[in-house]
């Protein structure tokens, strides 16, 4: 019997079946549209989410419910604050999910619960991209780690009232672990009140936090880790590591400066994100955003790179259209989810090799 003639067709058959199974698995993941369904529900069923509003609270409760459904221990941290543009005291909340790891050291991955007001129309945005796509990634991470124990403990946090400008916390925690300069810088950041409240309330966790990555408008374009923005120059070794780690794992990622966003009317808006208080506390931190054909040589970015950003055009219909359909959006979010998970799983290597340069 010619075993060679029999054996080779069997190998080819097994190889073809394997490819079909892999393809079926990939297609099944895309057709599930789990991440897209979260984006659609929050942006369309809940809608615009002004800081401190009922809709922001609905979003917080939705995130808490979804994290709980994947076995993530979740708490809601309520807080009160003053805003220059509002009468009286306002209330908001942070949603904090904890995935216990082998190590008590923790990584924070976070997103905004509220949405911005379009400066031209005066209306709050639906915020499908900024920042529901990021909330969907938080939910996706909870599902990913449902049956997988990470090395570092992971905090998945939705921060409230991040977009409300000129805010001050009420009954802010006194300084304990922060030095005077760090404490004052965090206290007087003009916005990001939810993130500021969380950090001031958890100063004892600063030395236990190895990294913070906040997610901002990740629903279309190439993933970009921010080197510096209007308020901070981030830990360059950390940003370089994240970009390097992404690239060696097959992701097309860039390192950018993001100082200002040029609105279609020509006005430049200063840019930062909810990682900022942690950066001021000297925790390796940055934010991840996505841009279409990013100009890596410019610190100002615009509507051609981030369509609809900070305007009422940031809605579900446009987000889906810009991705070529819901399947395209799910694929984009799957990519970001995989990238963030890869970053989480490899951050221990950052502490082993801190001097990486990226061009």
Automatic annotation (TrEMBL):
Residues 94-321 form the Peptidase M28 domain. GO terms for molecular function: metalloexopeptidase activity. InterPro entries: M28_fam (IPR045175), Peptidase_M28 (IPR007484). Gene3D superfamilies: Zn peptidases (3.40.630.10). One of its GO terms (biological process) is proteolysis. This is Zn-dependent exopeptidase M28.
């Amino acid at each position: 019997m010619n075993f060679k003639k029999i054996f080779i067709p069997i190998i080819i058959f097994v190889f073809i079946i394997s490819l079909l199974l892999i393809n079926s698995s990939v297609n099944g993941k895309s057709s599930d549209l789990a991440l897209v369904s979260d984006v659609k529900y929050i942006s369309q069923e809940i809608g615009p989410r002004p800081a401190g509003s009922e809709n922001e609270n609905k979003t917080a409760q939705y995130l808490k419910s979804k994290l709980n459904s994947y076995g993530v221990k979740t708490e809601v941290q309520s807080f009160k604050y003053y805003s220059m543009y509002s009468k009286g005291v306002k209330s908001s909340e942070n949603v904090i999910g904890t995935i216990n790891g082998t190590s008590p050291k923790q990584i924070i991955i976070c997103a905004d619960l509220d949405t911005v007001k379009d400066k031209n129309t005066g209306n709050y945005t639906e915020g499908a991209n900024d920042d529901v796509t990021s909330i969907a990634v938080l939910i996706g991470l909870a599902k990913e780690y449902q049956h997988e124990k990470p090395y570092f403990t992971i905090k998945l946090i939705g921060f409230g009232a991040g977009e409300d400008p000129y805010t001050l916390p009420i009954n802010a925690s006194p300084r304990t672990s922060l030095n005077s300069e760090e404490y004052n810088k965090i206290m007087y950041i003009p916005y990001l009140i939810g993130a500021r409240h969380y950090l001031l309330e958890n100063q004892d966790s600063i030395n236990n936090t190895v990294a913070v990555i906040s997610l901002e408008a990740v629903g279309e374009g190439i993933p970009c880790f921010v080197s510096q923005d209007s308020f901070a120059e981030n830990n360059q070794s950390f940003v370089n590591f994240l970009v390097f780690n992404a690239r060696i794992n097959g992701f097309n990622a860039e390192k950018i400066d993001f100082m200002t966003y040029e609105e279609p009317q020509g006005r430049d808006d200063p840019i930062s994100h909810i990682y900022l208080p942690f950066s001021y506390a000297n925790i390796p931190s940055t934010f991840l955003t996505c841009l279409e054909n990013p100009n890596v040589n410019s610190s100002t970015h615009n509507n051609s790179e981030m369509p609809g950003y900070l305007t009422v055009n940031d809605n579900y219909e446009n987000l889906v259209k810009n991705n070529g359909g819901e399947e395209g959006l799910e694929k984009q979010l799957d990519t970001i989810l995989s990238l963030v998970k890869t970053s989480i799983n490899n951050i221990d290597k950052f502490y082993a090799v801190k001097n990486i340069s990226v061009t």
